[in-house]
Amino acid sequence: MKQPYAAAFLSGGGETGQLMRTHDWSRSPLGDPSGWPQSLRTVVSLILNSKFPMFVAWGKELIFLYNDSYVEVLGNKHPAAFGRRFYDIWSEIWEDISPIIDRAMAGEASFHQNLPLLMHRKGFDEQTWFTFSYSPVLDETGAVAGMYCACTETTQQVLLERHQKEENERLRRLFQQAPGIMAVLREPRHVFELVNDAYLQLVGRRELIGREVRDALPEVVGQGFVELLDKVYATGEPFVGRGIPVKLQRQEGDVLEERFVDFVYQPIRNYTGEVTGIFVEGHDITEAVRASTALRESEQRLRQLANTIPQLAWMAHSNGHVHWYNDRWYEYTGTTNEEMAGWGWQKVYDPQQLPEILEAWKHSVATGTPFEATFPMRSASGEFRTFYTRAAPLRDAQGEIVQWFGTNTDVTQIEKAQEELRAANRRKDEFLAMLAHELRNPLAPISTAAQLLKLSDLDPERIRRTSAIITRQVQHMTELVDDLLDVSRVTRGLISLQKERIGLRTILSDAVEQVHSLIETKRQQLSLEIAGEMPSVMADRTRLIQVFTNIINNAAKYTPEHGRIAVRVKQDADRVLVAVEDNGIGISPELLPHVFDLFTQAERSPDRAQGGLGLGLALVKSLVELHGGTVSVTSAGTGRGSCFIVSLPVADGGDAGGEKLRSESAEARTASGLTLLVVDDNVDAAETLALLLETQGHRVLVEHSAQRGLERLHEAAPDLMFLDIGLPDMDGYDMARRIRSLRLPRQPVLVAVTGYGQPQDREQALAAGFDHHLVKPVQFSAIMGLMAQHASPADEECR
User: Fold this and answer.
1) Which CATH class is domain 311-410?
2) CATH of 675-798, one of 2.130.10.10, 3.40.50.2300, 1.10.3470.10, 2.60.40.10
3) Domains in the chain: boundaries
4) What is the spatial distance between Cα 211 and Cα 754, in angstroms, rounded to a whole number?
5) Where is the PAS domain positioned along the sequence (predicted)?
């Protein structure tokens, strides 16, 4: 059975095409699509197969139909807008657009650039700007039955480019000079002062400048045009003509040829208001008037539309022969119509990809399937830019292809952005693989050591060595997690610096001390060179030590045994420069621009398995910038060493004077004989903490739920309670609040033991009633410090 016509012209179109096919048309003024007029079918087929936002409003009630690309313009008005009245959809901007609609329904096409509209499409009033054209749509009788629009939202462009107002204004004036016949006549004798090429093409190539209309175009005398010019000059009122026939002798010796024109005679006035000339502007619409089918009328409108869109656009015959390009094409390629005729478009395509493109285009022409491809095209300047090209077939009532319409959209910037995202994603994947590797490394010796401790015949020396292995590997894992947390805090802006005036000697001494073991192990030579007096800086001591520790540690890691590392300090005006230079493996030119990016590391080969997550230098850059400084790196290439330079502002007031190294040691007080209660649902974590506390001579009780912990609290009256936050029946915060609400003879000291270590986590714990906040894995020194602080159960001041 032959497919109904409605199904043929409504085929494709994506979401809106499907919506149009399944819509209930029984209550619509348009009726069933099978009964739609040919002109409406043609326009609907055009917009459904276009990637450019388009709509058509048909009939007296202007019933609204649109394509997939227009859905984004509608916002949350879609899909309810489909098939409704134009006014019901855009009532909030009706006052702005109704005059334009009236012009279109009166038969006048119009184009508007960056028109401001206050729209309500996302749940709120939004100031937008649009560039669009409204064109009348004629039915088979030649009457205006509807209008269609092609539009693009230019809101972002307007907001971003307002500062280029003068340039935009110049471009707008040029852009608004739509193609068509134009002439300027000097009065009172209607002398040609200026004509354009389109005008000369209309009347035939002849000499017009400086001649009167009567002499230059004698054949128009008696056709009413000279009389109209006389009237406009005499009254000062413009004249608008629509579809006016004119007989012209376009070539010498030819008979008169009838053409049809739309034109305006617009009086030109001087500063006194006197008419001094007449501006003639119009279009040769002969082909449109003579068009015998709605398809040819649609093609003419499509050409006018395609010259207003920002994409390169073109049309081809059913055999693939391209016969028309829009102005954007010629502006971009710098070619002429003669050069591009037929298959001339091949000249602007990348020769390496041309065979593949030709094969794909010929396949689409042969099968009728839409053509889609992304490839480079050469501009007038010789530059190749990447374009996304799509061409869709236009079919007649029988479903036969009569035309192809294609667009080329510049996607160069999108392609670059996608490549950057792919590169970032690769770095992320590499980082995750590296993280898994780095975490598995310490887990292996920890697991082996745990198995060894299960053996009953281990001597004390082996137990000591096994415990030391576990301690070192846990410390390594803790440092990895700390690096991750530091980067997270910095990138989210959660780091706040505690600045003080401090000398660089102290900072560098502490940094070198932290890296000393690695340098000593690799038997490297480290030198400190200071030009002049050592300056002071306003800095967060801990964070600045972290900066130089990371840089010196990085130098030591990537410098071979017996290598040299030099730390040089000099003051330059109001800034101090610290250079860390090594003679290590260096940095390749490809890696150099990315060394401060997150997750970036040098190549991991067997001789470069240095460990780490590629976070250190990214953290260095962020912390230095927080101090108002900069960090840079240079390298002569692979195997030729590298040099990192940190620049920091010098503190006001000169040198630090006599610097003093801070002592981190404090006299520890012993604490023994305390009653302690550990509440943690992780049995292993609770038992190991209890064992550690018992070795210090304390009585330790263990429970694995909040309820049992509260019951044991009344029985044992512990001096300190170590509470996990993530308990199954009641979280640690609620348990702390419950304890603080109890009337006890003596409140215990509450210590939160948790894997959450952000500043806000500590604040939440203290607000819930905890006295201390420890982050897992808990350091032995931290626990001993608490025990010393609370040596006397009655010492309430320590809380």
Assistant:
1) alpha beta
2) 3.40.50.2300
3) 5-175, 181-290, 311-410, 422-491, 499-649, 675-798
4) 96
5) 298-368
Q: Letter for the amino acid at 161?
A: E
How is residue 170 written in tokens? Answer: 């110049």
Confidence (pLDDT) at 8: 64
CATH number of 499-649: 3.30.565.10
Q: What predicted TM-score, i.e. pTM, was given to this entire model?
A: 0.36
Contact yes or no for 555/549 (Cβ under 8 A):
no
How far is CA 132 from each of CA 114, 297, 516, rounded to the nearest angstrom?
Answer: 8, 20, 69
Residues in contact with 217: Cβ distance below 8 Å, sequence separation at least 6, in sequence order = 203, 208, 248
Tokens of 435: 């993280």
Residue with tokens 């042969």: 366
- pLDDT higher than 50, residue 174: no
The residues, ordered by sequence, that sit 6+ positions from 347 with a Cβ below 8 Å of its Cβ are 335, 339, 340
CATH superfamily label, 5-175: PAS domain (3.30.450.20)
Q: Give the chain's length.
A: 799
Distance CA 306, CA 774 (A): 68
User: What are the percentages of helix, strand and coil residues in the chain, rounded to 5?
Assistant: 40, 25, 35
Mean pLDDT along residues 126-143: 94
SS3 59: coil
Segment 356-398, tens digit of pLDDT = 988 999 999 999 999 998 889 999 888 899 999 999 998 887 8
Q: Which of the four CATH numbers 3.30.450.20, 3.40.50.2300, 1.10.3720.10, 3.30.200.20 does domain 181-290 have?
A: 3.30.450.20
Take residue 655 and report the two structure tokens written for it. 């040198």
| Residue 120 three-state SS | strand
- Tens of pLDDT, residue by residue over 552-571, are 988 998 999 999 999 999 88
pLDDT at 714: 85
Residue at 765: amino acid letter? A
Query: For the residues of 387-454, what is the DSSP string, one character each?
Result: EEEEEEEEE-TTS-EEEEEEEEEE-HHHHHHHHHHHHHHHHHHHHHHHHHHHHHHHHHHHHHHHHHHT
Question: How many angstroms separate the CA atoms of 99 and 681, rounded?
Answer: 73
Question: Contact at 8 Å (CB) between 131 and 150?
Answer: no
Structurally, at CATH architecture level, domain 422-491 sits in Orthogonal Bundle (1.10)
CB-side neighbour CA atoms (13 Å) of 142: 7
Please report how many Cα atoms fall inside a 13 Å half-sphere around the Cα of residue 38, on the Cβ side: 15
Interior/surface letters 5-15, b for 16+ CB within 10 angstroms, e for the rest: bbebbbeebee
The residue type at 222: G
Fold match flag (5-175 vs 675-798): no
Each residue's pLDDT tens digit, 397-423: 788 898 888 899 999 888 888 888 887
